[in-house]
């Protein structure tokens, strides 16, 4: 009998959940914490017209930057795109829609989506072009912008270690947006460097509990060269 809590699947099975035109949440910061095997699988499958929600667009040939470089993304919601000149060029040419969001607000919007909040209130951007199209709310005499929650059809996460029930440990700074992203996908797919049996992770080490995780795939390792390795 198959254990209903078993979440480890093949890459090919995980890729059945990706389709053209979908919304994709990706953990990572400048490529660090982006899941390389899942990203390569998306490229190989030919998925396109993605709406990508992530902290940034990485670098041209690193992490989710590859999806932008290959023009698989139609819209980005991110805090910045400056490290990927291809994103800037596509935005200028009208080929890529970009919605900018301050980094802290972006993180909170993803968290709000993950925990089911209707949004968050922030005074960042009041009186600037950033307030365009946003609802204003007055609370205790102070004006705020309503920042709406962010979710996605699929969230992709890179973990250092996962057990077969989906409990996750992250590698130092690769923790970044990954725990928030893991909560906010209708389906969350984790790429893990190491998959261990249940009980082999100290409960005190677990950052993301398995309740947020739907599927786990074995990582094939980073398939790009980092800027500092050149």
TrEMBL record:
<comment type="similarity">
    <text>Belongs to the 3-oxoacid CoA-transferase subunit A family.</text>
</comment>
<keyword id="KW-0808">Transferase</keyword>
<dbReference type="GO" id="GO:0008410">
    <property type="term" value="F:CoA-transferase activity"/>
</dbReference>
<dbReference type="InterPro" id="IPR012792">
    <property type="entry name" value="3-oxoacid_CoA-transf_A"/>
</dbReference>
<dbReference type="InterPro" id="IPR004163">
    <property type="entry name" value="CoA_transf_BS"/>
</dbReference>
<dbReference type="Pfam" id="PF01144">
    <property type="entry name" value="CoA_trans"/>
</dbReference>
<dbReference type="InterPro" id="IPR004165">
    <property type="entry name" value="CoA_trans_fam_I"/>
</dbReference>
<protein>
    <submittedName>
        <fullName>Acyl CoA:acetate/3-ketoacid CoA transferase subunit alpha</fullName>
    </submittedName>
</protein>
<dbReference type="InterPro" id="IPR037171">
    <property type="entry name" value="NagB/RpiA_transferase-like"/>
</dbReference>
